[in-house]
Amino acid sequence: MIADRILEEARALLGTRWRHMGRSETGLDCIGLVLVAARRAGLDLPEPPPYRRVPVDQALRRGAAEHMDAVLPAEVRDGDLLLFNMGVYAGHVGLAGTHPVYGVASCVHAYLPRGEVVEERLDPLRQQMTGAFRWREG
């Protein structure tokens, strides 16, 4: 499944430093992590237009909906795209996973507060989660 391949590629980028609008192993932001992992997994996604660090509209949600199907938070599976609020609007994304060591729900994301791509428990992030999307096979 494409979701499994994207998650695997994202995990291969753990430790990559955070950089706004980064799109390579020298630096990634949250959207860059998803784009690079998807491309490495064989899914060609378009590059979004330049964006600010703080979202000003629903562009992130619209972009996800163009290429993916919305799922309920209770139905999230490994590899699904998770959206998180930054203030009023969704402004952060990550990939759902099951932590390979601890076996708990996790999120793989390029996270500015950590300064790099990390995989961490999803539970502390759930309060900011505002949507989830599943990749379309095919």
Protein architecture, described:
With 138 residues, the chain is of the alpha+beta class. It has one domain (2-50, 61-135): Alpha-Beta Complex (endopeptidase fold (from Nostoc punctiforme)), CATH 3.90.1720.10. The protein has helices at residues 2-11, 30-40, 59-67; strands at residues 23-24, 27-28, 68-71, 81-86, 89-98, 105-111, 116-121, 129-135. α1 packs across α2 (30-40).
Major beta-sheet overview: 6 strands, antiparallel
CATH architecture: Alpha-Beta Complex
CATH class: Alpha Beta
Mean pLDDT: 93
- Could you give the order of strands across the largest sheet? 3-8-4-5-6-7
Any idea what the radius of gyration is?
13 Å
Summarize the model shown.
The chain has three helices and eight strands, in the order αββααββββββ. The chain is of the alpha+beta class and 138 residues long.
SSE order and pairing:
Blueprint: H1 2-11, E1 23-24, E2 27-28, H2 30-40, H3 59-67, E3 68-71, E4 81-86, E5 89-98, E6 105-111, E7 116-121, E8 129-135
Antiparallel strand pairs: 1-2, 3-8, 4-5, 4-8, 5-6, 6-7
What keywords describe this structure?
138 residues; alpha+beta; endopeptidase fold (from Nostoc punctiforme); six-stranded antiparallel sheet; two-stranded antiparallel sheet
